């Protein structure tokens, strides 16, 4: 088969496939153009999920007729004035967005440059320009793309439903709106709810208000601010509390110089920062904004500009991990208020039912209809396989509160403490404490598990990782890439108890392993560490194994459900929780306590 030169229109359609994957891709490019044009208001509207119509209107500085005619040509842009690709200061810069959209849709642009007497309009149908004409457009630009992928029907088969495509477009608008709080954004669609975000200003307070607009007041109430700076990199944002977690990473928003990115460097850094607080299948919610010299980051890695590459990736990753850990540590014992609201909702529903004439029957249902069946050993907090022997108290009637701590008035100093003074122990599992403006219910096993885990980690940091010398050193064969990654991290691995050295081409000799891991498959351990080193550039695979072991030890040696505590023990537990960072959640991301404010309790009884 002979080699032939492709038709220019076909070339444009092939190239468009790299940039315009779906309607959301087109919206992203057009909104980024509006932001680069200095717009203070951007209105987005779509029909049929973006297939039938995409319209983006802005009040930026617009374009002259000459610029407008050139803007729909491939590789024509105003965003690299000096041709320096190493210092990109704009969002869109490739010069491919408009011609790519025009190659797969009918495109019409109305624009008027600032100070111009008249505007201009251009149409491009199926990749062919229809010429310029005058327009009465007042300011900025209006871009309309109709019948997306009409010229490439094969692409239509891979689009999702209208509702799914609309949701994808809305997500793009939200992400760009979060990075630009000084700009007003609106979004309208014929399927799904619209959006309208008023301008909030460019200050840090304005950014926090915009984040609340996009992610909701619940996220703002359950997040902590962070700010860090290192060697020209500046990081700001909000980090969700570990107990405010999600099943996926959709509520993780990361920006580099105002550009929304989805990069494995940041994904790994976020996982590392929350490693001690969340199980592997849960994901935190956060919004991070990283600013740096444009020369320190390459944004030209991916056609959709969704990935970036740093000149010093270790610096960027270390800044993110350090800032997140510091912010979470500053939260001390704080836990998300989501469990509290859920508890109040349940109580309020049952209180309303009781007030409606149901009486005690309104509090029926499977959990409360048979109180004699309750057994603390079946509590989610009770460690499997380590439950204590049944106590005689569980065989005589329903469990009752331990009222001994309430025999004497609570010390005023203890009541003023964040977690208050212990007043009772319910079902030998939950500690009830009185605070100055409410009460706190603590899961004694989950709380003590966290405290023991933190103590074990501190002990390991102070005394180092104990190691065991292999009687016969183990030779592990690896490919060149993984072997180089291992040898470059020799010192870091040795500090964690894994001592190895090169053993000829394609092999490493392992002499010592962490003693805490016991009798393990040395080859599998080294391979796992090498894989993660290649992927993310650190030794977290080994750290995870050691931390997981400490977590199991902490679980097995903590106060268990069913154990009766004295008032002194309960208060000591509360005070230690207040001193321990991360004590608001156990090692699995579950809350260790729920706080009920007196005002909320009074509402349940109709007192306010």
Describe the structure.
With 608 residues, the protein is of the alpha+beta class. The chain has three domains: 8-197, 2-Layer Sandwich (Heat Shock Protein 90); 216-330, Ribosomal Protein S5, domain 2 (2-Layer Sandwich); 333-608, formyl-coa transferase, domain 3. Helices cover 37% and strands 22% of the residues. It contains 20 helices and 24 strands. A hairpin with a 4-residue loop joins β22 (499-502) and β23 (507-514). α14 crosses α19 and α15 packs across α17.
Tell me what the CATH architecture of the largest domain is: 2-Layer Sandwich
The CATH homologous superfamily of the largest domain = MutL, C-terminal domain, dimerisation subdomain
Instruction: Identify the CATH class of the largest domain.
Output: Alpha Beta
In angstroms, what separates the terminal alpha carbons?
84 Å
Strand order of the largest sheet: 5-4-3-6-2-1-7-8
Query: Would you tell me the overall average pLDDT?
Result: 81
* Rg for CA atoms: 30 Å
Tally of alpha and pi helices: 20
């Amino acid at each position: 088969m002979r080699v032939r030169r492709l038709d220019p229109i076909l070339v444009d359609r092939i190239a468009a496939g790299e940039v315009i994957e779906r309607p959301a891709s087109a919206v992203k490019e057009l909104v980024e153009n509006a932001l680069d044009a200095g717009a203070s208001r951007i209105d987005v509207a779509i029909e049929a999920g973006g297939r039938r119509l995409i319209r983006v209107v802005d009040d930026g500085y617009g374009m002259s007729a000459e610029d407008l005619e050139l803007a729909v040509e491939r590789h024509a842009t105003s965003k690299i004035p000096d041709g320096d690709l190493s210092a990109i200061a704009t969002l869109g810069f490739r010069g491919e967005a408009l011609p790519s959209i025009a190659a797969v849709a009918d495109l019409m642009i109305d624009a008027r440059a600032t100070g111009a007497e008249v505007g201009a309009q251009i149409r491009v149908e199926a990749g062919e320009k229809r010429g310029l004409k005058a327009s009465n457009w007042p300011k900025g630009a209006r871009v309309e793309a109709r019948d997306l992928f009409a010229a490439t029907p094969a692409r239509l088969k891979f689009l999702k439903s209208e509702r799914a495509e609309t949701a994808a477009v809305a997500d793009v608008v939200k992400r760009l709106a979060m990075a630009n709080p000084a700009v007003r954004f609106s979004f309208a669609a014929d399927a799904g709810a619209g959006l309208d975000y008023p301008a909030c200003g460019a200050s840090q307070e304005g950014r926090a208000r915009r984040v609340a607009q996009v992610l909701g007041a619940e996220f703002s109430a359950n997040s902590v601010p962070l700010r860090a700076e290192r060697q020209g990199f500046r990081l700001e944002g909000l980090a969700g509390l570990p107990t405010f977690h999600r099943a996926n990473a959709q509520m993780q928003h990361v920006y580099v110089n105002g550009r929304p990115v989805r990069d494995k460097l940041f994904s790994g850094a976020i996982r590392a920062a929350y490693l001690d607080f969340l199980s592997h299948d849960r994901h935190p919610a956060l919004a991070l904004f990283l600013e740096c010299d444009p020369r320190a980051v390459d944004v030209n890695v991916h056609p959709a500009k969704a990935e970036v590459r740093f000149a010093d990736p270790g610096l960027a990753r270390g800044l993110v991990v350090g800032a997140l850990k510091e912010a979470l540590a500053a939260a001390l014992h704080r836990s998300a208020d989501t469990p509290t609201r859920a508890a109040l909702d349940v109580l309020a529903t049952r209180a309303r039912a009781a007030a409606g004439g149901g009486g005690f029957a309104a509090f029926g249902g499977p959990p409360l209809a048979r109180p004699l069946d309750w057994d603390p050993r079946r509590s989610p907090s009770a460690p499997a396989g380590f439950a204590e022997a049944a106590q005689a108290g569980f065989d005589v009637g329903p469990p009752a509160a331990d009222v001994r701590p309430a025999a004497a008035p609570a010390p005023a100093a203890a009541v003023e403490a964040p977690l208050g003074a212990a007043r009772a122990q319910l079902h030998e599992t939950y500690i009830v404490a009185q605070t100055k403006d409410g009460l706190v219910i603590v899961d004694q096993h989950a709380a003590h598990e966290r405290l023991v885990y933190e103590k074990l980690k501190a002990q390991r940091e102070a005394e180092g990782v104990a190691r065991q010398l292999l009687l016969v050193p183990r030779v592990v064969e690896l490919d060149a890439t993984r072997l180089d990654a291992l040898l470059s991290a020799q010192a870091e691995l040795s500090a964690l108890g894994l001592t190895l050295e090169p053993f000829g081409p394609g092999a490493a000799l392992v002499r010592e392993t962490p003693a805490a891991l016991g009798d393990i498959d040395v080859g599998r351990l080294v391979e796992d560490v090498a894989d993660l080193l290649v992927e993310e550039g650190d030794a977290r695979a080994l750290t995870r194994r050691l931390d997981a072991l400490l977590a199991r030890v902490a679980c097995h040696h903590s106060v268990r459900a069913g154990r009766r505590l004295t008032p002194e023990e309960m208060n000591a537990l509360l005070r230690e929780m207040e001193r321990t960072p991360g004590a608001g959640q156990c090692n699995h991301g579950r809350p260790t306590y729920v706080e009920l404010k007196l005002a909320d309790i009074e509402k349940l009884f109709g007192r306010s």
